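Sample intake sheet
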Amino acid sequence: MKRVLTLLGFVIGVVGIGFVMGLTNMPGAWYQGLEKPAFTPPNWLFAPAWTTLYVLIAVAGWRVWTRFGMGMLFAIWLLQMGLNFLWSPVVFGIHNLALGLAVIIGTLVCILLFIGKSCSADRIAALCFVPYAAWVAFATYLNAGLLVLN
């Protein structure tokens, strides 16, 4: 029962903070006025995509936390989470696409590092991060495109 409650805590925490970050850092008129790179998804896609990814991120964090505690792998998980939550205020709050690009590149590096380090320790945790890595790589392209075009 304790493991289930811990998992529930991770999911509620990650999805909840992501939800709050999204609500308090809406793209708004500034973003709408930017020239967008090719293949920019419709706005409605971001909320369900991130909700799904946040659940997978939470499961990976929970697995690492319950199996290894506060070690290097969980520290990497925490770092990528902090960078993930920092991106929206940087881009949508202070409208800094260059700093946003630096943050998202740092996030992607942490995600790939997490996958690499967790592959042998916890394959399921690593696999939970694969769609996240793909999405953040795509988001990095979008951020770079916004910076170049604007």
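Comment: The helical segments are 2-24, 28-32, 46-68, 72-93, 97-121, 123-149. The first helix runs from residue 2 to 24.
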